[in-house]
Amino acid sequence: MDTGTAYGLRLGAPLNDLAQVGPGTPYGEVLRRYWQPIAKVEDATTRPVLVKILGEDLVLFRTRKGAPGLLHPRCIHRGASLFYGGVEEEGIRCCYHGWVFDTEGHCLEQPCEPELGLHRDRVRQPWYPVEEQYGLIWAYMGPPEKKPVLPKYDTFENLAHDEQLIVDDNGVGGGGPAELDFNWLQHWENVMDPFHVPILHARFSGNQFTPEMALIPVVSYEYTPTGVRSIQHRDLGDGRQLRRVTEVMFPNLRVVASPKLSSGQTNMIGWVVPQDDTSFRIFTVARDADPDFLRKLRSTHEGKAWKDLTDLEHQRLPGDYEAQKSQGPISLHSEDHLTTTDQGVAMVRRMMAKQNRIVAQGGDPAGVIFDEAERVVRIEGGNYFEGAPDAPLLAAAVED
Ligand code: FES
Ligand SMILES: [Fe+2]
């Protein structure tokens, strides 16, 4: 008799406590305890835009005085959307009856009421605090009494005179659209999966990065105070050893040095920001002298850019997008068969569940900073060469 057939297959279920991001969900509450990048600074203008973050629809704008504001879109008067509002010196005016709200939701004016609203200070448009840093707008969407300081990262401090910060919100390096249409965790936990690199990005689909990355590494993992770290050793066969360190930092940072192997501490960090349970964006900040640094990092597929691939080429040369989206809108984690090389993924999931418990019990999750003096976060991830340090890299397999 045949065994193991698909007859009667049960599909299983996601780890919703980790994957879901909406208000009141376990990990949604963890995510809300940290500042999140929500847009590039240039996206906040006097024309309001709708943004979706952690399952919430919000309106982002910039007053004529230059302050960014992030408000709940439904006007507290009678519900018209502030997307149709007009931006003024100090705030935004609802199109319907003209109430004006500042960036903290204070009602400044009710033009049809006596004296522009004798009781206007009794109402408040729901709002979130925002700050601008590293070319991004950051929002804090959690409980006000738990608001941490907005961290800085040593990677982005003290730029050399020829360096600049480069910001990108354009999908995954391995190819894909800017707005990714599947659950964010499939991408984030992939950061602790160094073994997909020599398979997916090399043996299967041709060298999408460099020949060194095609070597199967020897990997160890460790918990850090702020996340999980992988330490990958590759013997390059020419007297050099490559020690590549990648990190996930809570709640959704990816610290992955260039897979094209620039040497030393990584010059870039990414934030995997859920829009809702089945879509996310990745905001990446890099420091480099070349303003095109991030664009040049994108993997190529037999010389072609991801967006130019035919259906057949997507199937024949899959990258991160094809692999991770095909896990499903939200992966059915209960059906996974984790093995020794999934240790990093298992550690991420375990540490996420621990943060859920900490937050549910009223504690502070890993890495939130309340002390201004501890605001600068040290980043360890990078590519570190040992052996003959000046030996050139193997010729790059693909041209930009
Ligand atoms: S609905 Fe906004 S002012 Fe009336
Ligand atoms: Fe990848």
From TrEMBL:
Record-linked InterPro entries: ARHD_Rieske_2Fe_2S, Cholesterol_7-desaturase, Rieske_2Fe-2S, Rieske_2Fe-2S_sf
Domain Rieske: 35-139
UniProt KW keywords: 2Fe-2S, Dioxygenase, Iron, Iron-sulfur, Metal-binding, Oxidoreductase
CDD domains membership: Rieske_RO_Alpha_PhDO_like
Gene Ontology MF terms: 2 iron, 2 sulfur cluster binding; dioxygenase activity; iron ion binding; monooxygenase activity; oxidoreductase activity, acting on paired donors, with incorporation or reduction of molecular oxygen
Cross-referenced Pfam families: Rieske
PROSITE patterns: RIESKE, RING_HYDROXYL_ALPHA
Protein name: Phenoxybenzoate dioxygenase
